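Q: Given only this backbone (161 positions), what sequence would you predict?
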C-alpha cells in the first residue's frame, strides 16, 4: 500500500457561527463545535484511508476560549498518526472576529478513526509519509498517545475481570 503525505488529506474549513449554534448564555454551544470537529476530522480520515471510517474515540478535547455568535470558526485539521487500521486526527479551532480581525485559539482535539471495508470490518490504512519537522513531532506525540490508549484499554479489561 502506497504511503500518503499529511498534506494529501489536510483540511481547513471556515464556518460562520449563527444563532442556531447558540447556548443559553448566548455563546456558541460546545456541542456545535464538537460536531464540526468530528465532521472535519472525519473528512481527513476518509481522504487518507480512501474508504469509510468511524469515530472510535475522542482522546482529548480542550476548550480554551469562548466563541461568539457571528464569528468565523476556522478548523485546521490533519492526520498525525496512521496505524494498521486506525488513524489519529488533530484539530485546532480558531475563532475570528471578522470586524476587528482578532483571532483566538478556542479549542484543540485529538480523535481516533478506524477505516472500514465494504463489510463494515476494520481495514488497513495507508502508511503516513512525514515530510516536515512539525509532522515528525506531531507523529511522535501521537504514537505516545496511542501507546497510552492501548495501555489504558488493557487496564480497563483487567479491572473488569
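A: Predicted residues:
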Amino acid at each position: 500500500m502506497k504511503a500518503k503525505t499529511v498534506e494529501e488529506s489536510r483540511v481547513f474549513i471556515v464556518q460562520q457561527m449563527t444563532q442556531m449554534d447558540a447556548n443559553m448564555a448566548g455563546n456558541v454551544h460546545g456541542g456545535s463545535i464538537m460536531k464540526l470537529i468530528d465532521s472535519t476530522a472525519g473528512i481527513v480520515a476518509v481522504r487518507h484511508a480512501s474508504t469509510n471510517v468511524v469515530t472510535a474515540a475522542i482522546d482529548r478535547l480542550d476548550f480554551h476560549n469562548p466563541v461568539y455568535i457571528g464569528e468565523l470558526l476556522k478548523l485546521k485539521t490533519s492526520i498525525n498518526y496512521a496505524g494498521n487500521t486506525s488513524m489519529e486526527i488533530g484539530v485546532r479551532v480558531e475563532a475570528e472576529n471578522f470586524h476587528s480581525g482578532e483571532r483566538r485559539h478556542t479549542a484543540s482535539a485529538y480523535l481516533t478513526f478506524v477505516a472500514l471495508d465494504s463489510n463494515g470490518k476494520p481495514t488497513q490504512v495507508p502508511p503516513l509519509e512525514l515530510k516536515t519537522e512539525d509532522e515528525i513531532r506531531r507523529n511522535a506525540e501521537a504514537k505516545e498517545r496511542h501507546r497510552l490508549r492501548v495501555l489504558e484499554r488493557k487496564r480497563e479489561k483487567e479491572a473488569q475481570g
